[in-house]
Amino acid sequence: MRFSTRSIMLVGLGTVLGVSLTIGQGVLAEREDIKQSPLPLDDLRTFTDVFGKIKSDYVEPTQDSALLENAIRGMLTGLDPHSTYLDAEAYQELRVGTSGKFGGLGIEVGMEDGFVKVISPIDDTPAQRAGMQTGDLIIRIDDTPVKGLSLGDAVKLMRGEPGSKILLTVVRENEDKPLKVSITRAVIKVNSVKSRMLDPGFGYVRISQFQSNTGENIINAVSELKKEHEANLKGLIIDLRNNPGGVLNAAVAVSDAFLEDGLIVYTEGRVNDSEMKFKATPTDIVKGAPIVVLVNGGSASASEIVAGALQDHKRAVIMGTTTFGKGSVQTILPIPNGAALKLTTARYYTPSGRSIQAEGIIPDIKLENVKLTAMEASPFEPIKEANLSGHLDNGNGKDNETDDAADNKDKQELSLAQKDYQLYEALNLLKGLEILQR
């Protein structure tokens, strides 16, 4: 079978309420070994026998088109967790999803043990604001049990008009009983890149997912941070935690922004068009400043491409927990009826030849996301040299009294450590790397 229509390749993970994320382009070529392979007549005869029995004996009349479409779905879902059949509606949503605007709850989902599993809530969406977490298992959607539903059926139940409410029953690790989470549906507008200055000269960039314009956005974000600092950055943190993936070209562009040469990622598959290599161009937007990349179990696919490329080139320190481990590439193959197939066609590899499939990117520094609480202040202030009567001046011409600015800085650092311990440690590491580099 030949598909002459332009196809789309994917490294996104799961489904965002029916929206998968595109990553490049290619065409599935006709293979000689497929053309020469004889049709499995015995198996096809079995298929037609089963088809006839369902038509004649099933308790209710069935439509031929529905049976054949379900057979196609079964063929694809039986291959691996990421190959699937996209009807015309789902295919259209996929194409809209890469623009960064779509309807829904704002969660990336997949299936596990018959339940819908939350792979990652998307930043600044109803799902995140309602408290949905990576790893949550959705067992009931309003009054409908999820067990027995396909992912597509569950996604359709979760869709709805913006402003309408949905009640999800969720099983969460370390919780004694299921949780009830009420979410108000909305049109999701995803800003894939956010940035801010953590400390003078030390920038922070958060990439929530890889969209078609993410590469351009991160260049603009770093440029704005430089203007704020009025100089090149001393260091940069790239936060890829709970980033489920997205557009391959965007992952390549983000990696290329910090690499001056060498391979970024390559793919290998059975079809010639599935074999691609992406190389860096000689531009580093932070001019060699140290980089720390934060990852966790919700960092998947395109996120792993970026982390793997920067790690293999020793351009960044990867910190956090082991990533999801999705190292396969899906190709969207449009078919004449307006639907499409999402078919796994290749594996991708990091520059050193590592496949992260079912293994993930192992951080250089493993760091769990823990919660810190401040200790109660001692009623007695420690005695220092400056408190002793008749102490000598330091000769620096500075006032020995406590610097209010330093106190405020300590409070800010404590606040960051309590809010996001991994980010706090990443900033400390970045400062150490900058001191050594200096």
What does this structure look like?
- This protein has helices at residues 32-36, 41-57, 64-77, 88-97, 126-129, 151-158, 214-229, 248-256, 302-312, 404-419, 421-437; strands at residues 7-10, 25-26, 84-86, 101-104, 107-112, 115-121, 137-141, 144-145, 165-171, 179-184, 186-189, 193-199, 202-207, 235-239, 263-269, 276-279, 291-295, 317-320, 328-334, 340-349, 365-366.
- It is globular and about 105 Å long.
- It contains 11 helices and 21 strands.
- The protein has a domain at 105-189: PDZ domain (Pdz3 Domain, Roll).
- The strands form 4 sheets. Strands 1, 2, 3, 15, 16, 19 and 20 form a 7-stranded antiparallel beta sheet that branches. Strands 5, 6, 7, 8, 9 and 10 form a 6-stranded antiparallel beta sheet that branches. Strands 12-13-14-17-18-21 form a 6-stranded mixed beta sheet, with helices on both faces.
- By secondary structure, it is of the alpha+beta class.
- The model is unreliable at 1-6 and 15-32 (pLDDT under 50).
- Helix 7 (214-229) packs parallel to helix 8 (248-256), helix 8 (248-256) packs parallel to helix 9 (302-312) and helix 10 (404-419) crosses helix 11 (421-437).
- A hairpin with a 2-residue loop joins strand 5 and strand 6 (115-121).
